[in-house]
Write a structure and sequence with these properties.
The protein is mainly α. The chain has one domain (about 5-160). Helices cover about 70% and strands about 5% of the residues. It is built from 5 helices and 2 strands. It has helices at about 5-30, 35-45, 65-85, 100-120, 125-160, and strands at about 85-90, 95. The chain has a two-stranded antiparallel ribbon with strand order 1-2. Strand 1 and strand 2 (about 95) form a beta hairpin. The longest helix has about 35 residues, at about 125-160. The termini are far apart.
Length: about 160
């Protein structure tokens, strides 16, 4: 293993840990402010710009690999996030309810991601690994946020329809 590859792997690990810590901090802070539809849909829209990485030939992977990474994220990794995301009404506003399991789930997902990263990297280049994990993360984020939009709208309808609102 070359020094460049080791440095890249270390940078990737540090970036993953920083991203995980950021997700936890943002999610915990989000529970203190009322939820809005724009706050729910902004992350997948912002993350969608990451698809531009596939303009580079170094990042491109076969379509079946891309679909597989997306589906793994959508079918397996989004599920725990969907289970732990609930809304509640307080003071006439809709809030994301803090889950005690959220941090445990995010840390577990991060650990699985780090373990899988080393396995995947044995078969594909570092840029392709980044692309595959981006697709996995987007596959995890999109269904989670779509379910959150549906639940938020349902809670908001109940709130607006209630006689105390």
């Amino acid at each position: 293993m070359s020094l460049t590859s080791s440095t890249t792997q270390l940078f990737s690990l540090v970036a993953s840990l920083a991203a995980g810590a950021t997700v936890i901090a943002v999610r915990l802070r989000a529970t203190k402010k009322p939820a809005t539809l724009s706050k729910i849909i902004a992350p997948p829209l912002g993350m969608a710009t990451g698809f531009l990485m596939f303009v580079s030939p170094l990042v491109r992977v076969p379509w079946l690999w891309a679909l597989g990474a997306f589906l793994v994220g959508a079918l397996f990794f989004s599920y725990p996030l969907i289970l732990t995301s609930r809304f509640e009404v307080a003071n006439g506003h809709v809030y994301l309810k803090r889950s005690k399991m959220f941090i445990v789930i995010i840390v577990a997902l991060l650990a699985v991601r780090i373990l899988l990263h080393d396995v995947v990297e044995r078969y594909v280049s570092i840029p392709q690994t980044a692309g595959l994990f981006f697709l996995l993360a987007f596959g995890m984020l999109l269904p989670w946020r779509l379910v959150m939009v549906k639940r938020f709208k349902a809670v908001e309808r109940r709130l607006l329809g209630s006689p105390t609102a």
